[in-house]
Amino acid sequence: MRSNASPDRSVDIDWIEVPPDSAQLDFGEAVREGLSRASKTLPSQFFYDAEGSRLFEQICELPEYYLTRAEAEILERAAPDLAVRHPRIETIVELGSGSAIKTEVLLRAFLETRDGLCYAPIDVSRAALEESIERLGRDHPELEIRPALAEYEAGLAELRALDLGPTLTLWLGSSIGNLSKPEAAAFVSRIARDMRTDDRLLVGIDLRKDPAVLEAADDDADGVTARFDLNLLARINRELGGNFDLDAFRHVVRYDEDSGAVKSFLESLAAQRVEIPGADLEVAFRAGERIHTEDSHKYGPEEIDALARGASLRVEAQIRDAGERFAVSVFARA
Ligand SMILES: C[S@@+](CC[C@H](N)C(=O)[O-])C[C@H]1O[C@@H](n2cnc3c(N)ncnc32)[C@H](O)[C@@H]1O
């Protein structure tokens, strides 16, 4: 579905909107399904309403949250070379673009090395998309912007139909870590199937390291990550008329060495019942019962190689930050 309906923009931008009829975008449906399970869960993609996106930007500034700084350091170092090495790229697609602040260094380098460039951010957060395209449209009037308010694969399918030429697809911020490793392998394989010779996939991946460092990144001393996690319950209260008492839950983080996952939970501090009329649900919690809200999987170098091989891709480049905490991998067809 197309619309020119970016309410805050003076310039018309052709938006792609995939209607929220799939369970992935329907918050009420996802809440009912996740909180009705024996092991309760809420999908992490719903973190990013306007408040969640604002809190995530604060997280990126935290001393414990090294990921954004490490990835930005890599992109700043690598962008000019990437742009020169890939002169045929006409479009940069970004999965889960969020604020797209780190993306700007790539956009600038690619704009400087070709006549025109299309940027197609895909995100389920309308607030994040509107804010970022407003800024990018103002700062780079020569950039063609094709935002897609959609879940990753629905957005990719819509963009593919537009045939935007050789494409560099970005998946930054260690968002790959939110998927289990088999899910990530399957997702990357589906992207790879549609890649042509000149297409590239660039993925920011957080590396395995000291568990204390990993846990602190998702559970900072000032409690910003806790507020980000609890915002899921606040969002249920705001949008679905829920009556969660935010003081009756706490944010808990655990690292599982085997899977390489930092797991986040919201733990009920007492036995309690919560009503969520917008999800047609009344749900009981035991004291100590947890809602699983997010996984953040970390990779070793050999796991990144296996990810590429499993998708019939080759690692064209792999760049790490000076502290060897984070890797940006550029994949091409094998
Ligand atoms: C961790 S933030 C990363 C933002 C940005 N890429 C960065 O590196 O700072 C993840 C972003 O992906 C979006 N997102 C998460 N799951 C998604 C999905 N399945 N489809 C589309 N967007 C998604 C969220 O709305 C959010 O803006």
Structural summary, described in words:
The structure is a single chain. This protein is an alpha/beta fold and 334 residues long. The protein folds into two domains: 2-22 and 59-210 and 299-333, Vaccinia Virus protein VP39 (Rossmann fold, 3-Layer(aba) Sandwich), CATH 3.40.50.150; 27-41 and 224-297, no CATH class. It is 37% helix and 25% strand. It contains ten helices and 15 strands. The chain has helices at residues 27-35, 50-60, 66-85, 103-112, 126-139, 152-162, 181-193, 211-217, 224-240, 301-310; strands at residues 2-3, 15-17, 91-95, 118-123, 144-145, 148-149, 167-171, 200-206, 249-256, 261-268, 272-276, 281-285, 290-297, 313-320, 326-333. Strands 1, 2, 3, 4, 5, 6, 7, 8, 14 and 15 form a ten-stranded mixed sheet that branches. Strands 9-10-13 form a three-stranded antiparallel sheet. Helix 2 (50-60) packs antiparallel against helix 9 (224-240) and helix 3 runs parallel beside helix 4. The longest helix is centred in the first third of the chain and has 20 residues, at 66-85. The two termini are 34 Å apart. The relative contact order is 0.17. Residues 4-10 have low confidence and may be disordered. Bound molecules: S-adenosylmethionine.
Question: What labels would you give this structure?
Answer:
10-stranded mixed β-sheet; 334 residues; 2 domains; binds S-adenosylmethionine; globular; 3-stranded antiparallel β-sheet; Rossmann fold; alpha/beta
CATH topology description of the largest domain:
Rossmann fold
Which CATH architecture of the largest domain?
3-Layer(aba) Sandwich
Low-confidence stretches: 4-10
| Major sheet size, sense and barrel closure | 10 strands, mixed
Q: Span between N and C termini? A: 34 Å
Structural class by SSE content: alpha/beta
